[in-house]
């Protein structure tokens, strides 16, 4: 594939040109939904989900046949500040675990019939510690965005982006604080499980990062200054999915921070996304509120890897199976109200 973009401005231009949903297919799906053998609205959010999916796939009676889970891994210089309960080498060790099929996301992908790919991004070269300077150069960010962009399969009809990166809840918190303001502790949580002293230290790091980088540029610039390679790759994949009209299920706090960088850069950039779940990471619910997304599931997960979103594939499959498979009142000879 020829390189889709060579600079951040070219990536911004692609975001600005992103296609909308097919309104005709959406309207036809709404009409079909009204004729199905159930009381109006009785399938609750499943009805909205099926109509949303139909609009993005451009057909009133869609199938969901090829879901793809893609997991990106990156290392973070900010781990030098002691922000995680786990050592940085766990990122690489977990990549091996993903490759050998031993992680939670391997099992969930299999359980919901999704393909799964893992992309490790320059693990030997952590991003710069963003309390000292920008996490990435422009070219490093372009490379990470391109990794995500290129990871999306042409035949994919639903995308889940997951991540693995020790230290990345600090990156996500710093992104959210830079984008939405408030206090550093509004956005800082325990991640893999830091104790009270660890949480206080992490909050200091987020505050210092925002003081250094806040208020400078759009969401893409925030991503360059405070993101990580796997965070950027998720943003690139979500943007590529949009260009192909592939619906996306967002995962937890880090995935949503990546998505927020797109939303802050271009209005409507996440119209092709639904929120798979509410993570137990303290600020995820608030971040979902900023994105205007209502989570499908709330199961106390705080794993990442795309795990909550992968579970929500099952919900979406259920919604589409009902929408596309049910008989209408006329077909079934059932009296409508
Ligand atoms: O998805 C979430 O909401 C989530 C919440 C807490 C932790 N994580 C995972 O834990 C790792 C980051 O935690 P930490 O404490 O190292 O910043 C990273 O690999 C994430 O996938 C993920
Ligand atoms: C073991 C482990 C697995 C993970 N998966 C995603 N983030 C993780 C963090 C840790 C520490």
Automatic annotation (TrEMBL):
Name the HAMAP family on file.
Answer: CobT
Q: Name one Pfam family in it.
A: DBI_PRT
Enzyme class, UniProt record, top EC level: transferase
Functional note = Catalyzes the synthesis of alpha-ribazole-5'-phosphate from nicotinate mononucleotide (NAMN) and 5,6-dimethylbenzimidazole (DMB).
- InterPro entries per UniProt: Nict_dMeBzImd_PRibTrfase, Nict_dMeBzImd_PRibTrfase_bact, Nict_dMeBzImd_PRibTrfase_N, Nict_dMeBzImd_PRibTrfase_sf
Name this polypeptide is given: Nicotinate-nucleotide--dimethylbenzimidazole phosphoribosyltransferase
Q: Give the organism, scientific name.
A: Thalassovita aquimarina
Which PANTHER family did the record assign? Answer: NICOTINATE-NUCLEOTIDE--DIMETHYLBENZIMIDAZOLE PHOSPHORIBOSYLTRANSFERASE
Please state the Enzyme Commission number of this protein.
Answer: 2.4.2.21
- UniProt keyword Transferase present: yes
| Domain of life the protein comes from | Bacteria
Q: Catalytic positions?
A: 305 (proton acceptor)
């Amino acid at each position: 594939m020829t390189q889709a973009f060579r600079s951040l401005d070219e990536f911004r231009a692609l975001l600005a040109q992103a296609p909308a949903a097919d309104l005709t297919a959406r309207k036809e799906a709404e009409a079909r939904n009204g004729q199905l053998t159930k009381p109006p609205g009785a399938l609750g959010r499943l009805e909205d989900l099926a109509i949303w999916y139909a609009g993005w796939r451009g057909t009133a009676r869609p199938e969901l046949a090829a879901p793809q889970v893609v997991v990106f891994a990156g290392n973070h210089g900010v781990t030098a500040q002691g922000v995680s309960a786990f050592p940085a080498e766990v990122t690489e060790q977990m990549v091996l675990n993903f490759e050998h099929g031993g992680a939670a996301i391997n099992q969930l992908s299999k359980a919901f019939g999704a393909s799964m790919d893992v992309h490790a991004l320059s693990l030997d070269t952590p991003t710069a510690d963003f309390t000292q300077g920008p996490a990435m150069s422009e070219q490093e960010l372009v490379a990470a965005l391109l990794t995500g962009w290129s990871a999306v399969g042409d035949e994919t009809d639903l995308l889940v982006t997951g991540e693995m990166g020790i230290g990345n809840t600090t990156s996500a918190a710093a992104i959210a604080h830079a984008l939405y303001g408030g206090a550093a502790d509004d956005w800082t949580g325990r991640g893999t499980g830091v104790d009270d002293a660890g949480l206080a230290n992490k909050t200091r790091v987020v505050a210092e990062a925002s003081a250094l980088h806040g208020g400078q540029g759009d969401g893409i610039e925030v991503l360059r200054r405070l993101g990580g390679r796997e965070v950027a790759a998720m943003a690139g994949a979500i943007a590529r999915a949009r260009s192909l009209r592939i619906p996306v299920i967002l995962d937890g706090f880090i995935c949503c921070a990546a998505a927020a960088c797109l939303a802050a850069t271009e209005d409507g950039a996440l119209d092709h996304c639904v929120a798979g779940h509410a993570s137990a990471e303290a600020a995820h619910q608030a971040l979902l509120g900023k994105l205007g997304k209502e989570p499908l599931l709330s199961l106390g997960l705080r794993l990442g890897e795309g795990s909550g979103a992968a579970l929500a594939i099952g919900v979406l499959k259920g919604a589409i199976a009902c929408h596309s498979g049910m008989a209408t009142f006329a077909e079934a000879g059932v009296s409508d109200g």
